[in-house]
User: What shape does this take?
Amino acid sequence: MTSFYVSHGSPMQAFENTPAADFLKEFSNLHMHERPKAIIAISGHWDTAVPSVNVVSRNSTIHDFYGFPKELYELEYTAPGAPELAKRVKELVLKAGFKTVVEDNKRGLDHGAWVPLMLMYPEADIPVIQLSVQSSKDGAHHYKLGRALASLKDEGYLILGSGTITHNLRQLDSNATGVELWVKEFDQWLYESLTNNRYEDVINWSTKAPHARRAHPSSDHFMPLLVVLGAAGEAPTSERIHSSFERSTLSMAAFAFHGAKSEKKQPSV
Assistant: This one.
């Protein structure tokens, strides 16, 4: 099964008819050849000191935002959890050389997970677990984290990263009619780097990408991409499956990472 990275944007995406929202609504029809056994979601909104997994039988809905319409806080996405899968993820990550993986027995799904999933799989009947990111760690850490999960995609599990290709909310202008040049340049750099297999540059994005820290003052929304890139396994092929922009500074692009057997050298980590 292919691993994916999607851009979730604002929580209001749950109600909006934007190109990015429309893409997510059609995602399962266009890009999934089979129904996943379960979903492993990596969201930019669960940021911890060490890798953590939520081990629950039923996911609660975390409304981790403020200042939005009441209707948004009334939405619920209570997909089943997958405790045994979560514990297996923990074992795989530990086996890959990570010293500590925390089991969280209370956490549900943050909006970086449930908003896109509500559009992709509105019935909320596919089990979901979350794996956290560590924005204090670098790209190699997250690529390695994803490589630990690679075997699961071949067993019918969907590994889904959720962030935003560019995520600088301080410079966001909801009234702007155009897109900032630095947003387009970062977006284009990422597209060209991924589709030309320059994965080491992507892993080292903070020193390789134009406007890296303007696009991501914090790395939390970029790191899920590196996890799913790693989860694609050896010599993946990258495909941009959606491209749009919102609110002057948000690239809402999405990528598919198709795994393939190859003798190509893998990025060093």
Observations:
- The two ends are 24 Å apart (CA to CA).
- The beta strands are 3-7, 38-43, 52-54, 102-104, 128-130, 157-163, 237-242, 245-246, 250-251, 254-258.
